[in-house]
């Protein structure tokens, strides 16, 4: 099985990881009313490839979340309840946004496993709510299509897709919910209206 090296930014890696997880897992509600995640029905060849790539993107996501919490602790203050962090100082809000932006621009490199042409329709024809831009970016790197390999991290809100924690990763630290005020939590630019994937070549 051939791999392809991709040179991207951390922000793009988070988007690719989000889409990968949404394709692999679906959320259901159990008899006790609690949500849980199960595997989607996919051909083994596609699931295997997606899982190989998921492990790569997941490392980036975990490191980003860890560094994001450090930045919140650095610039924010705990709420009276002590379970959330807010950033009230406008100057610190701007410093926080700048630090997050620098994180998302960090270059990363991964040897990913591409998607077979016969599996492409299974990825495209899905009822999963995924931003068209995010899907275009995903397909661009999974099929080695340079016309779709655009750095759209400045146009896609990272919260536009919310990947579940893979079932096998229960031993990892639970994600801490840090409730930054709406105007303070602008880690990424506000999401623009989605549109169909562009095919215009990237400017050098």
**Spatial sequence of strands, sheet with the most strands:** 1-6
Beta content comes to: 5-15%
H/E element order: EHEEHEEHEHH
Number of strands: 6
Count of helix runs: 5
3D shape: globular
Overall structural class, as computed from helix and strand content, comes to: alpha+beta
| Biggest sheet architecture | 2 strands, antiparallel
Mean pLDDT: 75
Q: Give the termini separation.
A: 31 Å
How many structural domains does the protein architecture include? 1
Provide the helix percentage: 25-40%
- Rg from Cα: 18 Å
Low-confidence stretches: 158-166, 168-204
Topology, element by element:
Elements: E1 3-9, H1 10-24, E2 25-29, E3 35-39, H2 44-75, E4 77-78, E5 85-86, H3 90-104, E6 107-113, H4 120-124, H5 132-142
Antiparallel strand pairs: 1-6, 2-3, 4-5
Helix pairs in contact: 1-2, 1-5, 2-3
Describe, in short, the structure shown.
This protein is an alpha+beta fold. The chain has helices spanning 10-24, 44-75, 90-104, 120-124, 132-142, and strands spanning 3-9, 25-29, 35-39, 77-78, 85-86, 107-113.
Keywords:
single chain, 204 residues, two-stranded antiparallel ribbon, 5 helices, 14% strand
Structure description:
This protein has 204 residues and is an alpha+beta fold. The protein has one domain. Helices cover 38% and strands 14% of the residues. It contains five helices and six strands. Strands 1-6 form a two-stranded antiparallel sheet. β2 and β3 form a beta hairpin. α1 crosses α2, α1 crosses α5 and α2 runs antiparallel to α3. It is globular, with a radius of gyration of 18 Å.
């Amino acid at each position: 099985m051939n791999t392809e090296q991709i040179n991207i930014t951390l922000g793009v890696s988070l988007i690719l990881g989000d889409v990968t997880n949404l394709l692999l897992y679906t959320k259901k509600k159990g008899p006790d009313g609690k949500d849980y995640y199960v595997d989607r029905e996919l051909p083994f060849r596609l699931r295997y490839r997606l899982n190989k790539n998921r492990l790569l993107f997941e490392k980036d996501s975990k490191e980003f979340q860890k560094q994001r919490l450090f930045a919140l602790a650095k610039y924010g203050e705990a709420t009276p309840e002590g379970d959330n962090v807010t950033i009230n100082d406008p100057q610190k809000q701007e410093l926080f946004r700048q630090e997050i932006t620098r994180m998302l621009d960090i270059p990363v490199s991964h040897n990913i496993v591409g998607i077979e042409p016969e599996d492409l329709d299974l990825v495209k024809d899905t009822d999963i709510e995924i931003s068209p831009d995010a899907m275009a970016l995903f397909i661009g790197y999974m099929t080695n299509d340079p016309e779709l390999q655009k750095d759209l991290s400045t146009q896609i809100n990272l919260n536009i897709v919310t990947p579940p924690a893979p079932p096998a990763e229960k031993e990892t630290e639970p994600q801490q919910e840090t409730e930054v005020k709406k105007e303070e939590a602008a880690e990424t630019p506000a999401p623009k209206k989605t549109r169909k994937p562009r095919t215009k070549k990237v400017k050098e």
